[in-house]
Write a structure and sequence with these properties.
Elements: H1 2-18, E1 30-33, E2 38-41, H2 43-48, E3 52-56, E4 59-65, H3 66-72, E5 82-87, E6 92-95, H4 97-100, E7 106-111, E8 114-115, E9 124-126, E10 139-145
Parallel strand pairs: 1-10
Antiparallel strand pairs: 1-2, 3-4, 4-7, 5-6, 5-10, 7-8, 7-9
Length: 146
């Protein structure tokens, strides 16, 4: 009896290991809000907005300019005093207008040579030539601050 249970247990583990895995990025969403307007984006939604590239520390990223994303969400970037990026671990960073209005400040969803690294998450901020704290990974929310 123990042998049969052991064989069934091993068989169940083998089948579980062979089951197709759901992609980490499927279902991942990015929330963009100003407190009154809220819109949620998938990777495909960002791709539909048009893509640009920006490089930081020798890595070329693909994404959407932050100001384009804000405009698509119905938020006028020219009327904002700051934009806050929020990562899944609760880390936040704020951008002043000189950064969030820049053409090369991106919400990235890929690298030019493939997907973002697993530790970057589905979305990340890319602000070229700025410190690491202004380039949070695992981005889940963008808050517009009037």
């Amino acid at each position: 009896m123990k042998r049969i249970l052991f064989v069934l247990f091993v068989l169940a583990l083998t089948l579980a290991a062979c089951a197709p895995k759901q992609e980490a990025s499927s279902g991942a969403a990015l929330k963009v809000t100003d407190g009154t307007v809220e819109k949620t984006y998938s990777v495909n939604d960002l791709k539909a907005l048009g893509t640009v590239q920006a490089s930081d520390k020798g890595v070329s990223y693909v994404g959407v300019p932050l100001k384009v994303l804000l405009q698509d969400a119905g938020i006028d970037p020219s009327k904002l005093s700051a934009v806050k990026a929020v990562a899944s671990d609760g880390f936040t960073t704020n951008y002043d207008p000189s950064l969030f209005l820049a053409d090369n400040t991106l919400v990235a969803y890929a690298r030019a040579d493939g997907p973002l690294a697993e530790d970057e998450g589905t979305f990340r901020m890319v602000v070229p030539d700025q410190g690491g704290k202004l380039n949070p990974r695992m981005l889940v929310e963008v808050d517009a601050i009037p």
